[in-house]
Amino acid sequence: xxxxxxxxxxxxxxxxxxxxxxxxxxxxxxxxxxxxxxxxxxxxxxxxxxxxxxxxxxxxxxxxxxxxxxxxxxxxxxxxxxxxxxxxxxxxxxxxxxxxxxxxxxxxxxxxxxxxxxxxxxxxxxxxxxxxxxxxxxxxxxxxxxxxxxxxxxxxxxx
Length: 159
Known about the structure:
It is a single chain. By secondary structure, the protein is an alpha+beta fold. It has helices at residues 2-13, 17-70; strands at residues 87-95, 104-116, 120-121, 124-125, 129-141, 147-158. The protein has two helices and six strands; from the N terminus they run ααββββββ. Strands 1-2-5-6 form a four-stranded antiparallel sheet. It has a two-stranded antiparallel sheet with strand order 3-4. The protein is rod-shaped, with a radius of gyration of 33 Å.
């Protein structure tokens, strides 16, 4: 009979412990799940931001400089004097629906840095007037806060 009392008292003391332990475990698992979801959401935002930055650079800034290389010089707004204020060509390059329906654009800023009558190309002097510009392209993904900068030196040769 003594053993029966010990078994009953142990059993009576354990009533509800399983419920409390399972609630604690459920709370811990819920907190871990919320933390994992927040981390995944942050990783997704980082990946999208990086992708937009790549679009702004490759599709915006680089294409703006490529367009400058093939452009008719009369369509480019550029400073007419040495060390004058840089001139910005707003929305010099625009492209819509690049990938995932994003649009990119770029501004082009021209700054005259040198005028030379004795400029050398590939080591050979030419008797021409050469205007050297620094071209800065500022690419961006429209509707996002991603901006990039790309720079190139451009020489305009006039006889």
